[in-house]
Automatic annotation (TrEMBL):
Keywords: Coiled coil. This is Coiled-coil domain containing 68. It comes from the Eukaryota. Residues 97-217, 256-307 form a coiled coil. GO terms for biological process: microtubule anchoring at centrosome. It comes from Xenopus tropicalis. The keyword Repeat does not apply. InterPro entries: Tuftelin_GRINL1A/MYZAP/CCD68.
Length: 343
């Protein structure tokens, strides 16, 4: 006796929280599993049908033989025990046939349930694909807008920074020109003061020479007795010359200190001029870098604003898309044939 064990088969599903990964994360594995299961169902159905046809033939043969034997026994006056034995065997055969019929009905029912699950899975998969594609497209648009907004804000910051650096650069240029003018003025003052010091040195030399001559004249007169009382005017003139020399000496010292201060201030201005040159060089590099970054951000903004990739918004799945030799088509064919034979 051949028996058929009907086992309900369910597809394993991992609870990942995302329908896209369930229906399309392992599509090849699910299709392979469904194909193998359909093959088993088809083989089992064929075995059941062949076994039923065989059992029906045997049953008809046994039934005819049984009827003949019963007739012979009745004609020959057989005992009641033989009749009971044949009747019990006949009942067992009928029970087996009914059991096989029930198993066949259960198999067809499971086949129908499997078809419903398959259609539901296929429809859910198509819907999940559409939803996943739509979500991807929405995420792409959202990220594109975020990138464009971020680049726009960064561009504005860079432009503001560039304007600020340009202001500082212009101010540094103005300070540089001012320092250069002040250095030029100090240089002219130093030149004039040096010329004045030179003239004062010459005048001091003249006064010293005049004092030396007057002192020589007094010395000569002092040696002559006739001019003993005639040196008063000369002595007054020598005192005047000495006073002029002292005044000139003090003035020269004051001018020398002023000249030293001018030279020191001129050196400080030259150092500041060098610092301004370094600052201007740094500002030029920063402005050049900001212009380059601004150009790059401008290109990025144009890219995220206009050059967007075309994305499919949905996918439609229908039965005509499947091959005639696919397991889905075979399952539909088996179901149609079963309904036709049953009717």
């Amino acid at each position: 006796m051949t028996s058929l064990a009907v086992v309900e088969h369910t597809f394993p599903r991992k609870d990942t929280g995302d329908d896209v990964f369930y229906f399309y994360g392992s599509t090849f594995a699910h299709i392979s599993e469904e194909t193998e299961y359909v093959r088993k169902i088809r083989g089992t159905l064929e075995k059941i049908q062949s076994q039923l046809f065989k059992n029906e033939g045997n049953t008809n043969h046994v039934t005819s033989n049984t009827d003949k034997n019963l007739a012979n026994l009745q004609q020959n006056g057989g005992t009641g025990s033989c009749e009971n034995s044949y009747e019990s065997k006949y009942i067992q055969i009928i029970d087996r046939l009914e059991e096989k019929e029930l198993q066949l009905v259960e198999a067809h029912k499971e086949n129908s349930d499997l078809q419903i699950k398959l259609e539901a899975t296929r429809e859910a998969g198509a819907g999940a694909l559409r939803n996943a594609t739509r979500k991807l497209y929405e995420n792409y648009i959202k990220r594109s807008d975020e990138h464009r907004k971020s680049h726009e804000e960064e561009k504005q910051k860079l432009q503001a920074s560039a304007v600020e650096h340009e202001k500082v650069f212009k101010h540094s240029i103005e300070k540089l020109h001012t320092i250069a003018e002040r250095i030029q003025d100090k240089h002219e003052q130093i030149t004039e003061l040096q010329n004045l010091m030179q003239r004062m040195e010459e005048e001091k030399s003249i006064l010293l020479e005049k004092k030396r001559l007057l002192e020589k004249e007094i010395s000569q007169r002092m040696s002559d007795p006739s001019y003993k009382n005639g040196c008063g005017n000369t002595r007054i003139e020598i005192a005047t010359v000495e006073e002029q020399i002292n005044h000139l000496q003090q003035l020269m010292m004051s001018q020398h200190q002023f000249l030293h201060a001018l030279i020191q201030e001129s050196e400080d201005l030259k150092n500041r001029l060098k610092e301004q040159d370094v600052t201007i060089g740094d500002l030029r590099e920063k402005i050049s870098l900001l212009e380059s970054q601004n150009k790059e951000l401008k290109n990025n903004v144009e890219h995220w604003s206009h050059d967007k990739t075309k994305v499919s918004k949905g996918t439609f799945v229908k039965e005509s898309m499947f091959d005639a030799k696919s397991p889905y088509s075979r399952l539909l064919h088996l179901r149609t044939r079963y309904v036709t034979e049953k009717s």
